[in-house]
């Protein structure tokens, strides 16, 4: 699997009552979802992540508030600000990710294509660099 990141916009449906976004496997989600979790109540000044996955695909969506996601893979470093519930960050393959600058009201939903597996994690940056060919 090639390491990559990309922003994906979701269609918004709604009227004067409010808005709705549907997430559908194989339609606007490029993988079948096996796990969903969310991060909220992150204390001011706290950063999260600091790991990579060997194979996992994830979609990160700030359904409320904002967060900065820093990604590194190959020779690329990219930074994303997630602050729209109609936009998700797709992370595939061996990508080091860090999450910073959580707003006090941030709710970050993460959809994953596999169940939790500790063996898929790389939690040491030097190990990530070695596995990334650096």
Structure characterization notes:
Strand 7 (67-73) and strand 8 (76-82) form a beta hairpin. It contains one helix and twelve strands; from the N terminus they run ββββββββββββα. With 134 residues, the protein is mainly β. The strands form three sheets. The chain has a five-stranded antiparallel sheet with strand order 1-9-6-11-4, with no helix packed on it. It has a five-stranded antiparallel sheet with strand order 8-7-10-5-12. Strands 2-3 form a two-stranded antiparallel ribbon. It has one domain: Jelly Rolls, CATH 2.60.120. The model has no long low-confidence stretch (mean pLDDT 95). It is globular.
Salient structural properties:
5% helix, mainly beta, Jelly Rolls, 1 helix, globular, 134 residues
Explain briefly what this protein structure is.
With 134 residues, the chain is mainly β. 5% of the residues lie in helices and 49% in strands. 24% of the residues are buried.
Oligomeric assembly:
single chain
Helix amount:
under 10%
Average pLDDT taken over every residue: 95
Task: Please give the number of β-strands.
Answer: 12
Q: What string gives the helices and strands in order?
A: EEEEEEEEEEEEH
Number of domains: 1
Spans with pLDDT under 50 lasting ≥5 residues?
A: none
Total helical segments: 1
| CATH class value | Mainly Beta
What's the arrangement of secondary structure elements?
Elements: E1 4-9, E2 13-15, E3 18-20, E4 35-40, E5 48-53, E6 57-64, E7 67-73, E8 76-82, E9 87-92, E10 96-100, E11 107-112, E12 121-122, H1 125-131
